[in-house]
Each structure stands twice: as C-alpha cells, then as structure tokens.
Design a protein that fits this description.
17% strand, alpha+beta, elongated, 801 residues, 6-stranded mixed barrel
C-alpha cells in the first residue's frame, strides 16, 4: 500500500512540477531561515551557562550617587565587597575577583602584546566554569608570582612543551611561574581571557586598597549562593551592611552607595553599565529577531497549508472514486499524509542543505561560532522534527477532513466541495502573511534608517587619516622622556599634522571616572562625577577639536599641571550659564584647585548611541594610553613604515601596534550593522516566500473562476475589469493586514529606539511605504497569474458546460 501511494505522489509530481517547486522551495527556504535565526538567538541566550551552578552565580554591580542625584553605575565593584559578602552572609558559598589589564609577556627573546589579561583569584575558575586542563584550579593563583594561561596561549609561548613550572616575564617587571593551563574560553562568555595573573601580588603591595577601598571600582566580583537562596534577601542584607558600616561617612559627604547581585546569565543581554568587559547584546533586539524567524516559518507554513488544500481539491475526483470503491477514512487520511510527508521531507532535506551551505557566511556576518557546534545541537534536530511533523499532519488532516465530509456527488463535480470555512481560513492566513510581511519590511527600513542616521552624525573631531599607536609599557626610568622624543620626531616628519598622547582616543570607552568635583566657592555637596581624559598639548589640534572659549595646554609642564580643559557639557554641569563664563575659573578635583583654561565642543567620545558625558581633560600623569598621529594625505603605507622604525628605535622591546582611528571608531556600530544586514536578508526572504504563496493562490483562484470569467467576457467585460474582479479581494485583505501590522510596528519600533541617545526623527512615509510595497508585489503577482485565464477564449472556459 505504501509503495502504491508513493507511485501516486511521483506521478502527480511529473504532472504538476511547478506546484511542487513552489511548495517545497517556499517551505525549505522558510525552515532554513528559521534555523539560522534560531542559531543566532540561541547563541545570544546561551551566554555564561558554563558553570554547573550558573543559576546561583552572580556578579556584584556597584552604584554610587550624590545628593544632587549625580549617579554612576559600574559593572565592576570595589575590591572590598567580595570578602565582606562572604564573611557576613552564610548563604554565600564562594567569591572571586578579577581586574582587567593588559601587558607584554616575554619568553626569552620572544614577546607578545596580550589584551585579554586579568589579575584574579583562584576561585574565578570554578565560579565561571573555566575548565583547567593542566594544574589545579583550586589554588593555581594563590601565590603572588603565579599565572594561568589558556591552551592557545601555551602553544604560542611554549609550543608542544609542557608549560607548567615555566616562567613568563610580565612587562619586564615581574617573573611569573605558569601554574595552570585552562581550556580556551568559548565565545559565549562575557569574560574573554587568555591570561590570569595572581591578584595576590597587588594585595601585598597595596593592602590599604583591599581593606578600605570602598569608593574604588574596576574589580569584577562574582559570588556563588547556596541553592534556593533568594538574591533579593542578600541585596537587602548588603544594603543594611553598607548602612551599618559606612552610613556615617556617606551621610557626612551626602553620598549614597549600593551593591546588588546581578545574575550571571543575564549579563550579556541586559547589562549596559560603565566598565562592561565588552559591548553586550540587546535583549529586545534578540527577542524581536527570534519572532521574525518564527514569522518566516509561519509564512512558509501558510503557503504550504493553502497550496496543499488547493491541491487536495484538485485531486477530489480521484478521492471520490476511491471513496465510492470503499476507501476508509484511514486510507484517505494515510494517502494524503504520505503526500504531505513527501513534500515536508523534501523541504526538510533541502532546508538542511541550504543551512549547511549558507551558515559559514551567516556565522561570519553575525559573529556566531562554527557550524559544527550548531549541527550537533539537540535543538537543531528538534526544530526540524517539529517542523516536519507539524507541516505533515496539519495540512494532511485538514485536506482529508474536507474531502471525506463532502458528498460523493459534490466531489465528482470537481469544485463543489469547497466550504465557506475553508475560504475564510485561506483569507485569514493570507491576511496574516500580508501583516507579517508589512511589519518585517517596516522594521527593516526602520533599523536601516536608524543605523544610517547615527553613522552620519557629525563627530566633532577629525576622523580621517588619524593613525593610533599604542604607547609603550616596557622600559626603564627614561621611558617618560622618550615620549617627548617620539612626538618630536613624528612632528618633524613631512606630511604629518600633529602627534599627541592621550589616555583614551575617540571611540574608546573612558574608564577613568572621578567623583567629588565641584566649583571653587560652591559646597562639596554640589560635587559630581566626571570623565577624566589625560592629554598632551597637541591633542586638540591633532584632532581639530574646536574651542568654544579659552585655550588648551601651553606645552609647559609646570603650568599645564595646574590647569584643565572641559567640554561644554561639563561647563553646564558645573553650573556655568555660558561656556565662556567657565574660562579662568577654578574647580576642586582630588582635593586641590585646578584652573579651567578652555572649553571645547561636545565631540562624540563614544558613538551617538550613547549620551555625551561631561569630560575634563588634564595634563598626563600616568602615561598609559595611545599616540594619535594625523598623517594627512601622505602615502599611508610608507608613512606607517617610517613611524614604525621611529617607534622601534625609541621604544625597544615594545611591539608596534597601530591602526587607523576610523576603522576602530566604526567598530562601535558593528552590532547595528550586523543587525541591519540580518533584518534585510530575512525581510527579503519574507517577500520571496509571500510571492511564492501568492503565485499558487492567485493561480488557483483564477482557475476556479474561469467559467465565471468566460461568461462575463461573453457579456462584454474588459480584461482590466476582470482583473479588478479577481484582485479586489486581495485589497480588502491588504487593508486589514495594514491596520494590524502598522500599529504593532509603531509601538515596537518606538520601544527599540528608546535604547539610543540619538534617535532617528521617524519619517511619516515609513508607515506607508512597506504597505504600498506589499500591495505592488501582490498586484504584479496576481496580474501575472491571472492574465493567462483572462486571455483565454471564452469557448475554452465554457466548452464543458
């Protein structure tokens, strides 16, 4: 019996290849798109689930504020809170701290600059689920001179030799012994680390910081609670502890402070505080894209459902004859289920093939892990199985129900078995397709326009031809003097337009935040927090940052160490009505007065996604940062080679690390760029799948009404009027779909835009263009499919009557 049914399917395939192509390709593309989007969504939802007890693991989030509600919130915390929580709350089973740093590591004469370095405690491995493959995780960072390195880092420095017990030199200042090798961290962790240096050395060097440094930050603190512990109970307990231990000091300075437990698994999609280790994802954006993925599959299912029921009506004479010959309900159902299963199985096979071919490019576009990790995931096969079963049984059972319940005489009339409920269902499903298509096209346009809007904003500084060179960290007591030698030699080069040192460059997050700053003559209670950037004399000229009032630094260190430059936002924050009023005035910072020598415009230190913050620029004191070189329009490659030679000569044993600022600055928009591309690709698929469905549905509708068309044509109806007769039903469905989709888009898009400091002024046409596009696509598709029937000689349409 099964072989007989399969022969029937293949015979039907030969007779109607176009129908099978539309049905299978639409369903396959929809399923492949759903799988790709699901892989993206699941990856972003899988972050930080490596620890066995990840549900009971938390990061401590730190906030402080002044009486005037000047508030700063850190992803990191003070070095004191971890031990305090462990000591005072028995529910806390363990804690560990980590401090982000970087440096140059030497193995004999070979050295590498390492960016992913943390000073940490041994407990970090267990708390974050980091697997140690050599050595002991429990105590590998207990000694001040110990270091743990990743598997790939071990190969880089030691090749195939066992690294345990070997020595690495850190910045030529400290010799470290390798005590552990850990497995390379997966991409779905918020912490990206290659090297962990023992925090114990710092604790020995500065015990006061670790016992009383409540107002410091930068220490990422993780705690593990006993199973079943309510984190809010711990949060309330911490609040009471802070009030008990520091309440009098906080009241004296009219300040507030809080430490709260942040679930480890929520960091990647919901945490956007100062000092984040990386740019985290957007939960609402990921959720929205997940909905888009299922919408695409729904559209494909709707197409398949409609076309399958249409095909079953086309086969109703055959089914009627089988019914007359005594076919049972089960036999009719089984035949249609075999037919439906064939289409779904073919679609599934093709979908998996599409996924395998496209996924490598898709993963590069979206930053996902290699496809091998996806294809072996249980959810991948579960999604395919559910799609196959749902598609097979929904279409098969619905098709047979209409045929079996109809009378034989109706079935033999070929066309009389249609029911109103079936027509209403098809119209409802088509309306759903239209609504989804309109909403997704509108969302794609909105995301693209917002991305283009923020990337076109005036940055307020020169972005072109700025070469950023990382400042050296290895050297002797003459290192600081060599800074000036380097800038002098670069400025002497023909074609350059300035070389300046700064602690951070535009586009880089400024981690240096200083509180307790206020105008001289005001109360300390008016003190606020400001970003501090340390810059050399030529910084503003190199970047062509415009002064609103006053001047910059003089180049005389004795004078410049007593003055600061502020941006317009800082001037307003300090209470000056006009920027000009701030020039020559003094502020209190770090318990000493500083004179404001100038005010610059509010240039975009970060991207337009974020609010402009009040900034204070002062003469360098730490000399940890970058050189910015304006290369002008000279030969780029030759200029970089010359600069590298100068750098290597003045700063030996320091790797030359250079890149153009423009490339670095636009990395801030990478997430929005990817998001826009993904939306564009999948909205195109939505349109394509909808067109496939319209092709089949409009062809069927025209075929069903061809006798009516023949009669009306005999009575004098024009071709245009006949097309309007067929198309007017689609217009009503389109209007209804627009009324559903556009308000939903407005609400959700407005919520998404709220996450940007700089928001697109939403153009009025964005609410109509997507609907018009869907209408035009429908018009063209229906016209192409209908004109064949309309153009037929009425005799052909009526010859069987």
């Amino acid at each position: 019996m099964l072989s007989n049914y399969l022969r029937i399917v293949f015979r039907d395939l030969r007779r109607n290849p176009g129908f099978y192509f539309i049905n299978i390709s639409g369903l396959a593309i929809g399923l492949a798109a759903c799988l790709m989007i699901s892989s993206y969504v699941r990856f972003h939802r899988s972050f930080d689930k490596q620890p066995e007890a990840y549900a009971d693991t938390y990061r401590v989030q730190y906030s402080r504020w002044s009486e005037n509600e000047d508030r700063v919130e850190f992803a990191s915390a003070s070095p004191t809170i971890g031990p305090a929580i462990k000591t005072n709350f028995p529910e806390v089973q363990a804690f560990a701290r980590a401090y982000k740093t970087e440096g140059i590591f030497f193995k004999d004469e070979h050295y590498f600059e390492e960016q992913k370095v943390f000073r940490a405690e041994s407990g970090i491995f267990n708390l974050l689920g980091i697997k140690v493959i050599r050595g002991q995780a429990a105590h590998c960072l207990d000694e001040p001179t110990s270091v743990a390195i990743s598997e790939s880092t071990a190969k880089k420095y030691f090749g195939t030799n066992d690294p345990l017990g070997k020595t690495l030199s850190y910045n030529k200042q400290q010799n470290l012994k390798v005590t552990a090798v850990f497995k390379d961290l997966p991409p779905n962790m918020h912490m990206k680390a290659d090297i962990f240096v023992a925090l114990a050395a710092w604790m020995q060097r500065d015990p006061e910081l670790f016992s009383n440094g409540w107002f410091n930050s930068g220490f990422y603190t993780y705690v593990k609670l006993a199973p079943g512990t309510d984190p809010e109970k711990i949060n309330r307990g911490i609040e009471a502890f802070i009030e008990r231990e520091l309440g009098s000091d906080l009241a004296k300075y009219k300040m507030g402070m809080s430490f709260r437990l942040q679930p480890l698994r929520d960091i990647h999609l919901t945490s956007h505080y100062m000092h984040e280790l990386e740019a985290n994802g957007d939960k609402s954006a990921v959720n929205l894209l997940g909905i888009v993925g299922w919408f695409i599959l729904v559209i494909a299912w709707v197409n398949f459902f409609n076309l399958s029921t249409i095909a079953s009506l086309r086969k109703q004479r055959e089914m009627a004859i089988r019914k007359v010959n005594g076919a049972s309900r089960f036999q009719l159902l089984f035949q249609l289920l075999i037919w439906s299963a064939f289409i779904n199985l073919a679609a599934v096979i093709i979908a998996v093939g599409i996924f395998e071919i496209i996924y490598p490019s898709f993963s590069q576009l979206t930053g996902l892990p290699p496809s091998s990790q996806v294809i072996h995931s249980y959810w991948f096969y579960l999604t395919i199985a559910l799609a196959f079963l749902a598609g097979t049984f929904s279409a098969g059972i619905y098709s047979v129900s209409g045929i079996y319940s109809a009378k034989v005489i109706q079935l033999l009339k070929a066309g009389q078995a249609r029911q109103k409920s079936g027509r209403f269902m098809k119209k409802g499903l088509l309306t759903l397709q239209f609504a989804i298509g309109i909403a997704i096209i509108a969302a794609t346009m909105g995301v693209y326009l917002q991305f283009r809007y923020i990337t076109k904003q005036d940055t307020g500084f020169c972005l072109d031809n700025i070469l950023v060179v990382k400042a050296p960290v290895v050297g002797d007591s003459t290192l600081l003097n060599r800074f000036k030698s380097f800038t002098d030699e670069i400025n002497a080069l023909s074609g350059t337009h300035g070389c300046a040192f700064s602690s951070v460059v535009p586009g880089q997050a400024n981690m240096f935040n200083r509180g307790g700053i206020y105008r001289v003559g005001q109360s300390e209670n008016d003190a606020k927090n400001y970003r501090i950037t340390e810059t050399g004399q030529a910084f503003f000229d190199t970047y062509k940052i415009r002064f609103i009032a006053g001047e910059g630094f003089t180049g005389n260190a004795a004078i410049d160490r007593q003055r600061v430059v502020i941006n317009a936002n800082a001037a307003a924050n300090l209470g000056y009505a006009k920027p000009q009023d701030a020039v020559g005035k003094k502020i209190m910072m770090e318990q000493k007065p500083w004179m404001i020598s100038g005010v610059v415009i509010d240039f975009l230190q970060r991207s337009p996604k974020e609010s402009i913050e009040p900034q204070i620029f002062r003469y360098p004191q730490r000399f940890q940062g970058k050189f910015s070189i304006n290369t002008g329009k000279s030969d780029t490659k030759q200029m970089i080679k010359v600069i590298e030679n100068i750098y290597s000569k003045i700063f030996p044993n320091n790797p030359f690390n250079a890149s153009f600022l423009k490339d670095y600055y636009y990395l801030q928009f990478e997430q929005e760029k990817r998001y826009t591309l993904v939306f564009t690709v999948f909205s195109t698929l939505v349109v394509f799948i909808t067109i496939l469905g319209l092709i089949g549905l409009s062809a069927y509708t025209a075929e069903q009404r061809k006798k009516e068309i023949g009669i009306r044509k005999v009575l004098g109806a024009s071709d245009n009027w006949l097309f309007w007769l067929l198309f007017k039903d689609y217009i009503l469905l389109w209007v209804l779909a627009s009324a559903i989709a556009l308000p939903v888009f407005y609400i959700k898009f407005d919520e998404w835009l709220a996450g940007f400091a700089t928001q697109l002024p939403i153009p009025w046409w964005i609410y109509f263009t997507p609907a018009i596009m869907v209408l035009i696509i429908s018009f063209i598709t229906v016209w192409i499919q209908s004109r064949r029937i309309i153009a037929l000689n009425p005799v052909e349409n009526l010859k069987y009557e």
